[in-house]
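ok posting inputs for the zinc ion job
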Amino acid sequence: MASINLARLLKEGGVARASGAVQEAFHVGEERFPLQGEALWKVSVSSVGGHEYWLSGEVEGVVLMECRRCLKPTPTPIHAHFQHMLRYEPGLKEVVFHEEAEDEYYAFGEPDLDLLPFLTEAFVSEMPFTVLCEEGCKGLCPVCGADRNLVDCGHEVEAHHPLLGLKDLLPEL
Ligand SMILES: [Zn+2]
Ligand SMILES: [Zn+2]
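and the output
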């Protein structure tokens, strides 16, 4: 479980630390981001006075993203840092994000704080929008679907560029 117990910190102040690993994948809604190996994380939570705590951490792993040209799963190293203000509100059943003017914080009410949402958000926002399996990946043939890195199917790609068909659809001016 990716969580940290803050019972002692809540009572005595100071700093609490935890570390661990996320296995297999991160999930956001229906979307799954598969990992190669596991993603390692470490987190510290420091008392900053009153009911406020400063959460600081990092998560590091290799996510498999589809190459944007040939769709091959491509190992993509990610190293993300994150920092958030936390506010302890005893009795609160779940973690709630608050945003008031310049003031942003997560309110929590249980000493066991689930870290997975923080790790997931940091990791996924650090992922690039697209990747290439290698510079110069030749991609899939738009005619027959062959991986042109592996086979030469002989199709003339330029002649089948999707935009070329467009001019037939446009009315003559
Ligand atoms: Zn590729
Ligand atoms: Zn082809």
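notes: Residues 141, 143-144, 146, 153, 155 surround zinc ion (ligand 2) (CB under 6 Å). The chain has two domains: 3-137, 138-173.
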